[in-house]
Amino acid sequence: MSAMLRLNSAGPDVTALQQALQAAGFNPGTIDGSFGPGTEAAVLAFQRSKGMAADGVVGPNTATALGLALIPSIPSAIPGVTVHTVSQMFPLTPIGHITANLPPVLDALVAAKLPDKAMVLMALGTIRAETESFEPISEGKSRFNTSPSGPPFDLYDSRQDLGNTGAPDGANFRGRGFVQLTGRANILDIPA
């Protein structure tokens, strides 16, 4: 499908649309290559069922959801990310830390299907802000996570926004890693 389809569109792309709607369980009426009110109603119902903006227009998102268009591929920035390039972004960081830890960071971005330039730069920028040493670290005690007379990280123990359920969750799920993930919900819900 090369163009957006809407009410009064006609042709083979509309026929393909009507067939895809029918196969998805949304009856467009007669499959005749004419985008009429029946096809529009089926498109609207399909869009609502997928939680999409229901406008009755078949653009790239609706076409992709119906299998009429390929998911656009995003070029990977990973091949251009080298130790030398990253060392220029982290001028105060020992090169050995970057050499040791850059490959697992890039592998994680690829595994999460986030290899595009914007995501790679955001990940590296966050690492620089959180742990410029380019080494994963564990959070230390501070007045923000430990009460004056309490055990380490007790202020995190019952933080429901972190998914913690009480002691010793604060200590067990304190900040860690390159971007200081904190809390039961953030640490345990990470894909392996």
Number of helices: 8
Major sheet summary line: 2 strands, antiparallel
Helix coverage percent: 40-55%
- Distance from first to last alpha carbon: 37 Å
The succession of helices and strands, N to C, reads HHHHHHEHEH
Q: Tell me the number of strands.
A: 2
Q: How much strand content do the residues show?
A: under 5%
Task: Provide structural commentary.
The chain is elongated, with a radius of gyration of 25 Å. The mean pLDDT is 92. The protein is built from eight helices and two strands. Helix 4 (83-89) crosses helix 5. The two termini are 37 Å apart. The chain has 192 residues and is mostly helical. Strands 1-2 form a two-stranded antiparallel ribbon.
What's this entry about, in short?
The protein has 192 residues and is mainly alpha-helical.
Please tag this protein with its features.
192 residues, mainly alpha, two-stranded antiparallel ribbon
List the helices and strands and how they pair.
Elements: H1 12-23, H2 37-49, H3 60-65, H4 83-89, H5 95-111, H6 117-130, E1 137-138, H7 169-172, E2 176-177, H8 184-188
Antiparallel strand pairs: 1-2
Helix pairs in contact: 4-5
